[in-house]
Amino acid sequence: MSQPTPAAAPAKRPAGRGGRNLELSEELKAYKGVWVFIEHDRGHVHSVSWELVGEARKLADTLGCQVSAILLGGPDEPLEKFAAEAFTFGADKAYIMKDPVLKGYRNEPFTKGMTDLVNKYQPEIFLLGATSMGRDLAGSVATTLLTGLTADCTELKIDPATRALAATRPTFGGSLYCTIMTLAYRPQMATVRPRVMLMPRADASRTGDITYDTLGMIETNIVTKMLDFIPDASSNKINLPYADVIVSGGKGLKNPENFKLVFELARVLGGEVGSTRPCVQAGWVEADRQVGQTGKTVRPKLYIAAGISGAIQHRVGCEAADVIVAINTDVNAPIFEFAHYGIVGNAMQVLPALTQAFAAHLALRSRQVA
Amino acid sequence: MHIVVCIKQVPDSAQIRVHPVTNTIMRQGVPAIVNPYDLFSLEEALRLKDKFGGKVTMLCMGPPQAEEALRKCISFGADDAVLVTDRAFAGADTLATSYALSAGVRQIAKEQAVDIVFTGKQTIDGDTAQVGPGIAKRMGLQLLTYVSRIVEVDLEARTITVERRAEGGVQVLKTSLPCLITMLENTNEMRFANLPAMIHAAAYPVRKWSKEDAGVEDLNKIGLKGSPTVVSKVFGPTPRSEKVEMLDLETSNLRDVSLNLIQKIFTRHPTLESDLLMKELT
To answer: Which CATH fold topology does A21-221 show?
Structure first.
């Protein structure tokens, strides 16, 4: 079983049921501060880390404590530069661990480094991005520390009664939300998907202190070796979560050939193409294009959904878009419950008309600007 | 080669409905299935068995009816199945689940040493992706998550080389057996079960283990007691207060509707038009 399911654990369960401890021990009350794991790879910090520093700042301000950025990496990696950037986004401190074995993510040395830091400095909250690196590390660290971890949170708050982290996440494919707390264990760990939280504003005047620690592991002690890293070809890199404009197509397009209409509109708008789980499962588009609970969370300025019914699993991935336009033949489709503008019609006719209208409008405006 | 594949029986989330008033899951009529992500791991395990010989043992924690999910796996070609089922496991979060399953794997390993443990990447009901790493850490196994391809297994040297999906690329990792692997979705296609296999599965005596059978020693580590996370509130999604504005194709032609929509979009989001023009110019 994964998270306790709502059916097994109804709301307002009386405290202490099942004979479990829900009180924080005196020893664990000493745990203070909010930590964010700063995920970086080949010279770039993943934006989700800054989004989390922004959230951590809000939590720390409520609790009256500090935000720390955690950076693990190789000796030749610019971790100080990343720390300085973390300060501008709201961190007060940075903990840096540099070691040759920490160059490139591997589970074993990162888990050891992270658990050692937590045990030494004792943070009360520890946030990570729900990426392939963050999830791999979070699950390992939480199990090693025997503490609670809540995955894919969509909202983080401090519960006023207990001062515990109240982490809300969708469950059952987004049909329900549950708020989960770790009351008797520290740190309280949570992962958040990219683009769920807003990017904070950088304040260039902010600075902070750096503390250095050592890992105490040598390469010969590490069982798993990285033989190679094959970067994705830039031509097939699909960066859906951070696209400004997304045009998505669903099963309402009837066949994979009609996706070219979606690609044409996306091209005119300089945007990305998204899709739904059924289309990905049918092999119509790549898995990286899936928007939704089991795909990507997106936050574009403009989201155009063509031939998508708007099942809850899709909705949770795209409802944060600034403007949502839905095209569907069925006036009762759930997509119209959360779209801003709706057109009841055949996407195969509406898409080319929109493509043409956008192209003409943008061409006219760019002539005016030039 | 002895491989243990851990699975979960889940409600088919595509068919789940929530009661609009009570906000409870309406399970009636919702079929229970093998967590779809687990099947990619099972297929990979079966392929390793095809290549190297040996045995695939299924392991599941759940209520007695989860036996059906295990039978399904037997029909695909798994050799043996164990259901760890005990009321004491109820209410387990991912930490308590990883303890129970790791106890089960240890018990299975007493019968025959285990080379690889597989779990799904995540489940479709919890979506946490935490149980695989949890079992690995509890058992001290090397952890390989999001594996897209098993490149090579060297049974002489007891090593395995895999490709692992990471952000922005693929890691080629080599590690020692035993290890724990979670397979990425769509990396293989589950084989079909033929009729004799289905008949064999229907009659297969799935082993049911209580907490004692599974070798659970510490009752504080299972079920609700072993779960650090507490569900404090369950609620439905908040409906959007703003209503959709429909653009009517019946009274207006497609071109006018398109132009009208573009005006509305750019009025609503004033910076979007200039962003698009910037892209156009660069």
So the answer is: Rossmann fold (3.40.50)
